[in-house]
């Protein structure tokens, strides 16, 4: 990234830290259960299977 942007590693790190602090409330942890309904729908699995997978 440093070579392409022609900025120092220190400056990029400073900007990254600033962005993380500004976006912190919006950044939530994503759990595997959040994706379970999408995967089950893509596989065509019934809701009973989805509920069982979330429980496990």
Briefly characterize the structure:
The chain has 56 residues and is an all-alpha fold. The chain has helices at 2-5, 9-23, 32-43, 47-55.
The biggest sheet amounts to: none
Shape: elongated
Order of helices and strands: HHHH
Oligomer: single chain
- CA gyration radius, whole angstroms: 20 Å
Mean pLDDT: 83
| Classification by helices and strands | mainly alpha
**How many separate structural domains?**
1
Number-wise, the strands total 0
Provide a count of the helices.
Answer: 4
Stretches with pLDDT under 50, minimum 5 residues? none
Report the portion of residues in β strands: under 5%
User: How far apart, in Å, are the first and last alpha carbons?
Assistant: 41 Å
Residue share in helix: over 70%
What does this structure look like?
With 56 residues, this protein is mainly α. Helices cover 71% and strands 0% of the residues. The longest helix is centred in the first third of the chain and has 15 residues. It is elongated. The relative contact order is 0.09. Keywords: Transcription, Transcription regulation. InterPro entries: TFIIB (IPR000812).
């Amino acid at each position: 990234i440093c070579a392409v942007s022609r900025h120092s590693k220190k400056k990029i790190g400073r900007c990254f830290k600033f962005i993380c602090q500004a976006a912190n409330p919006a950044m939530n942890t994503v759990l595997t259960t959040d994706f379970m309904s999408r995967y089950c729908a893509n596989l065509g699995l019934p809701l009973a299977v989805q509920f069982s997978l979330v429980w496990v």
